[in-house]
Design a protein that fits this description.
The chain is of the alpha/beta class. It folds into 2 domains: 3-147 and 331-355, Rossmann fold; 150-327, Rossmann fold, CATH 3.40.50. It contains 14 helices and 14 strands. The protein has helices at residues 17-20, 25-39, 107-115, 125-130, 176-187, 210-214, 225-230, 239-248, 264-271, 284-287, 300-312, 314-327, 333-345, 352-355; strands at 3-7, 43-48, 54-56, 59-63, 71-78, 89-96, 119-122, 142-143, 165-169, 195-199, 231-233, 251-254, 276-278, 294-296. It has an 8-stranded mixed beta sheet. Strands 11-10-9-12-13-14 form a 6-stranded parallel beta sheet, sandwiched between helices. Helix 2 (25-39) packs across helix 13 (333-345) and helix 5 (176-187) crosses helix 11 (300-312).
C-alpha cells in the first residue's frame, strides 16, 4: 500500500460532486482515479478547494488551506507548478497534466518545474508535442489517454438514424460563434430542418434567452428568425441527460480550440456512436478517425460539406456510427488507474498488482 496525496486547485469540489452536479473533465478524472486507487489498496488524500474535510468512498478530501502531511510515498500535483511544493518531502513527485502542457513553459512557471522536478503524466500526443525539452524529465513522460466512464461505453447500434440534429457540447467560448456563423451561412440553407443543440458549462440564467444575451459575443449578431429557431441553447444538464442528448444527435460539430488538450466530451460522443466533424486543432484529431468515425476539416467549405453529408446521408451515418461503436470505446477507469498507478509508483505495469 502506498500513501498518495493529490492536490488540485481547479475548482471547489470534493468526491460527492460527481453524483450531485456537472463537473469538468479534470474534476471527474481526479475523483474517479482517486476512488479506484483506494480500491487497489492505497491510502489516498485529495486536497482541493472543498469546504471541509470528509471521507468519500474511502478517499480523504481536505481543503487546500489545510496543512498537508509532510511526507508521503507519492505526491501528485494536478497541472499547476505552483502546487509542486505543497507536500514538502514526498518520495516521488508527479505533475498530472490535465490541461494544456504549453503553459508549463511560461517563464513564471518554468523555474518552479526545475526547482522540484516532477515526473509528468500527460493525456494526449498534443501535450507531448507541447512538453518541450526545456522542461524536466522529458524522457520520463507517461502518456495515458483519459478513461471513459461506463455510462458511455458498450451501447448497441441505434435501430434508425437520428433526425438531422447536431450537437455542440463544450464551453461556448470555444468557438461556438464561429460554428453558428458557419451553420447559418452554409449548413442550414442546405438542411433547413436541421437543429443545432448547444450544451456546455455557462452562466446563462434559466429566464434568459441566449440570443438576447450572447448576440454579438458568443453568438453572431443579426441572425434571422430561422437561424435562431434552429440553434437551441440548453441549460447545463446532468451527465445522464447529456449522454442521452449525445446519443440522440446525428453528429457532433466542433471547430476546435487551442485549449483542448484532450476533449473528453468528444471522446464520449464517439464512444456513444456519434460521428463528428472537427477542426484539426490541438488534440481533436486524436479523438476522431478521419473518414471512419467522422471528418477532420480545416476549411469552412469542407467542414460544412462534411456536416451536411452526415446530417443527410443515412448510409454514411450508419457506417460511421458502427465504426465509432467498434473503435472508439477507449479504456475504462480501472485500466486507466492501473496505468496511472504504475507510472506514479515507478514500476513496470505488470508488477503493480503485486505491489498494491
Amino acid at each position: 500500500m502506498a500513501k498518495i496525496i493529490i492536490a488540485d486547485a481547479t475548482g471547489s469540489y470534493d468526491g460527492r460532486a460527481l453524483e450531485t452536479r456537472p463537473l469538468g473533465g479534470t474534476e471527474r478524472t481526479v475523483i474517479l482515479c482517486a476512488r479506484e486507487l483506494v480500491t487497489r489498496g492505497h491510502d489516498v488524500t485529495v486536497h482541493s478547494h472543498c469546504d471541509g474535510e470528509i471521507v468519500d468512498q474511502g478517499v480523504r478530501w481536505r481543503p487546500l488551506s489545510d496543512k498537508p502531511d509532510d511526507a508521503c510515498d507519492v505526491y501528485v500535483a494536478v497541472q499547476q507548478p505552483e502546487l509542486l511544493g505543497f507536500v514538502p518531502r514526498p518520495k516521488r513527485r508527479v505533475i498530472w497534466v490535465l490541461w494544456g502542457a504549453n503553459q508549463l513553459r511560461h517563464y513564471k512557471k518554468l523555474w518552479r518545474m526545475w526547482r522540484r522536478p516532477p515526473i509528468p503524466i500527460l493525456m494526449s500526443q498534443s501535450q507531448v508535442r507541447d512538453y518541450w525539452p526545456v522542461l524536466p524529465h522529458r524522457r520520463d513522460i507517461t502518456l495515458i489517454h483519459l478513461p471513459l466512464p461506463a455510462e458511455v461505453r458498450g451501447f448497441p447500434p441505434l435501430g434508425q438514424p437520428p433526425p438531422p440534429r447536431a450537437i455542440f457540447a463544450s464551453n461556448p467560448q470555444r468557438n461556438l460563434r464561429g460554428l453558428v456563423e458557419l451553420w447559418a451561412e452554409r449548413i442550414l440553407p442546405q438542411v433547413p430542418n436541421a437543429v443545432l443543440d448547444v450544451y456546455g458549462v455557462h452562466n446563462l440564467r434559466p429566464s434568459e434567452d441566449a440570443w438576447d444575451v450572447w448576440a454579438g459575443d458568443l453568438l453572431p449578431a443579426g441572425a434571422s428568425a430561422e437561424v435562431k429557431a434552429s440553434v437551441r441553447v440548453h441549460q447545463p444538464v446532468s451527465k445522464a441527460a447529456l449522454i442521452e442528448a449525445m446519443r440522440a444527435a446525428r453528429a457532433m460539430l466542433y471547430l476546435g480550440h487551442k485549449c483542448e488538450a484532450f476533449c473528453l466530451s468528444l471522446a464520449e460522443a464517439q464512444a456513444l456512436g456519434t460521428p463528428a466533424v472537427i477542426g484539426p486543432i490541438s488534440a481533436l484529431p486524436e479523438r476522431v478517425i478521419d473518414g471512419v468515425t467522422g471528418f477532420h476539416r480545416s476549411d469552412p467549405a469542407g467542414f460544412a460539406e462534411a456536416s451536411i453529408q452526415l446530417l443527410t446521408d443515412d448510409a454514411l451515418w450508419r457506417r460511421q456510427h458502427l465504426a465509432a461503436l467498434e473503435l472508439q470505446q477507449g479504456i475504462d477507469v480501472a485500466e486507466y488507474t492501473r496505468r496511472f498507478e504504475a507510472a506514479i509508483l515507478g514500476q513496470p505495469l505488470g508488477d503493480v498488482a503485486t505491489a498494491a
